[in-house]
Hints:
CATH superfamily of the largest domain: MetI-like
Distance between the termini: 11 Å
Oligomer: single chain
Number of helices: 13
CATH architecture of the largest domain: Orthogonal Bundle
Order of helices and strands: HHHHHHHHHHHHH
Structural class: mainly alpha
Amino acid sequence: MIPILLHRIWQSVLVLFCIVTFCFFMMRMAPGGPFDQERALPPEIKKNIEAKYHLDEPLVKQYFRYVTDVFFRFDLGPSYKYPSRSVNEFIADGFPITVQLGFFSLLIAIVIGVGTGLVAALKQNTRWDYISMAIAMVGVSIPSFVLAPLLQLLISLKFGWLPVAGWDSFAHMILPSIALGTAYAASMARLTRGGMLEIVRQDFVRTARAKGLPEKIIIIRHMIKGGLLPVMTYLGPAAAFLMSGSLVIEKIFDIPGLGRHLINSALNRDYTMTLGMVIFFSVLVLIFNTAVDICYAFLDPRIKHE
């Protein structure tokens, strides 16, 4: 297990280095700059500002300075729009809120998605199967930015059951979590059904039934581990995207998470803020994918890691 983990960490570092390099030069190629305004700054002032942030240096020197700060000091730099605060501080402020949104969305996706998929697989070709998959198809087809306003109109404005926006109490978390987690729940339901139906036809399941084991024991001990492998593959990037928040959902429900900072940084051409958010989200994806690879070894010992 240790060699596998070390190999995955080394791969993740290389991938992250490529992401940092690509995003750095793409940001510099974009038209405009962080200090370009409708009313141009005096040349002397603009020159002093660029010197303060080392933007007057050659691009290659800026790149090596930034890579050194990121990989060796874990410093994502200061915000060009808010010079008194660093990108690390913005992430520290917004990430706990975004994690809460992602956690509850992931919980909804797993409970509803896996549960619905199990029912559909165990009741194959019955009305429960058809109803479950029809609901899953609807869930996959409706984007979160469409579902969110519908929930606000119906649940909040018409019936007044839950707050329409904000993030002040548990009641404020319900609608955003449902809007964000529904599409993932629908995908998990379809993957769970497919994985379980494949396991049902395996010889070891037939052998367990021939030995007279109760169906409940067969499902828990023999079928679920193998049947959930497709879900685990999907769960890695899904968990990372949910934990890093949804830009649209946070905007619609006025949630003060990382999504708002990323949108504002892109509009303000805040190089370091945009780069820092992209790097942070990439690290989350790499961490969750590594965790999925490790979980694979526990779910299916037959899987060989090279």
